[in-house]
Amino acid sequence: MQKDTKSNLKCCIYARVSTEEQAERDLSIPFQLERCRYHAQGKGWEVVKEFIDAGESARTDKRPEFQKMVTAARSKEFDIILVHKFDRFARNDYDFVIYEKELEDLGVILESVSEPGDASTPAGYIGRRMMQIISTWYSKNLAVEAKKGMKQKVENGGWPKLAPPGYLNKHDKNSAWIEVDPELGPFISTAFKEMATGRWTLKEWADHAYSLGHRSRKGYPLAVSVWGAIFHNRFYLGETWLRKGDVPTKGTHEPLTDESIFTKVQQVLREHDKHKQRTQRHKYLLQGLLYSSDADSPCWVETHPKKKISYYRSKAKVDGKQIFYNTKDLDAQMCRVARDITLPKEKRIELERELDRWFEKEANGDGELDQAQERLTKLERVEKNLQRLAIEEEISIEDFKEHRARIEAERKNLKDLVEMISSRRSLVKGDFEIALQISSELDNLFNEGDNDERRLLCETIFKRVYVRNGKITNAELNSPFALIASRVEGSESFLTRQPVFGAFV
Q1: Which helix (H) or strand (E) holds 275?
Q2: Among 36, 142, 271, 320, which residue carries the largest CB count within 10 Å?
Q3: What is the pLDDT of residues 399-416, one digit of tens each?
Q4: What is the CATH number of domain 167-278?
C-alpha cells in the first residue's frame, strides 16, 4: 500500500555513477542531486539525507552508501527514496525486486524523477518491471561492448591497459594512446642492451638502477621481480595483445628494444636460472613440514654458509624472540621416527585383507551419494520457486530470507557430505597397497636412502611434524598413511578417520 505522497514526508536522495559512466554529463552526481532536490522541493518533501556511490556498479548490491541507505530505511529514518532514474538504484533484476519488496513492507516509497508511476497499480507495476528489464539488458550489453572495444583497440595496434614501466598512458577528448616515458624509457632501452652482455644479474641491475635514481610512477624502487617482468615483456618490442596467451600483433607504440637484443636477454636470463638451480641450497628433511609447538607456528629453514650452521626457525616469537632448532639434530631424529612408525609384517597382512573387504563393500554402494546429490538438485528447484513467490509477492521478504537461510545451511551440509563421500570413493585401492608397502619398509627405506630420497619420503608421508624443546613429539600424516596409522592404533576403522599420529616420546 502506497503512502500519501502529497507533502510533509521525509525523503532521502540516492545518487550513483559507475566508472564507465563518469564522462556522461546527464549521469553526473551533481546533475542527479540537482534534479532530485528540485523534484523533492516541488513535492514538499524534506530531504533529510543524501547517499552517494561514486564509481560503483549497480550490477551488485555491494555498494557502501547503498547499504547504509537500506539500513537507514529499516530504521524508518525517512519515508521516500528518490533517485534520478531507477537504474541508479539497481541494474540487477533480482536485487531490484527483492529490495523494492523489502522497502514496500517497510512502508518506504521508491520514486524516480525521470520515470514517474505508481507501482501499486497494475499498469505502474508492469511499467516499472519493463524499465528494469531494459536497464538489466543495457548493463549486460555494456559489458559485452566494452570487451569488443578492447579487442578492436588491440587489433588496431592499441593497448587497452595501464602502460608498463617506460611508457605513459596519454589521452584527449577523442582518443587514447601510449607514449615513451621521456625519463624511464631511454633507460629501459639501455637496460636491455646491458643485460644482453651477460655482465649483470637481475639483483645487480635492480641495485644499479636504484643507485641512479630510477623509480616507479609512485616513487618506489623498481624491484628485482619488476625488472624480471620488464625483460620478459614483448610489449617493449612494439607488440600488443588483449589476454595472456594471445598471439601478439604489431602495436602503434614505439619499441624500446629490437628482436636481436631481446632474444639475447632471454638467453642470459635462462643461464641465470640454470646457475640458480646448480647452486640451490641443501633441501632439509623437514623444510616446509616442521611446526614449533613452543611458538605455536610453522618454521623456516636458514643456512649461514660462513658459520656453517643451519637451523629451523619459528615464524612467530615467544617473549619477543624466535625459537631455533638445529637441523642436524632434528633430521637425525627422523630416523627414529621412521623406525617407530614402520608397520609390522603381520599387521600389513591383516590390513590388506580388511582393505579387500572394504573395497568390495564400497563397490556395491549404499546410495548415500546419490541421495545427497538428488537432495541438492531438489533444493535448487525449491530456491527458484521461493524467488518466484517473492517476486510475485506470494510470501513476505522475511519468510523468503528465513527459508533461503535454511536452504543454504542444508546445502552446505550436503556439499560437505558429497565431498566426503567422493573423496572416500576416490581412494584408489592401488594407492593403499603402495602405502602399505612403504609403511612396512619405511625403516629400511629411510636408512638406506640418500638425502633427496629421505626428503621425498617425508613429503609423501608427513603433513606436519611437531617439535617441542628440540625434540620431535608427534606428526600429522598424509592420507592414506594417517588412515593406516589409525587402524594400527586400533582406535577406529582406518578408512573412516585421519587422526594426528601418536607421540614418539
Answers
A1: helix 259-278
A2: 36
A3: 888 888 888 888 888 887
A4: 3.90.1750.20
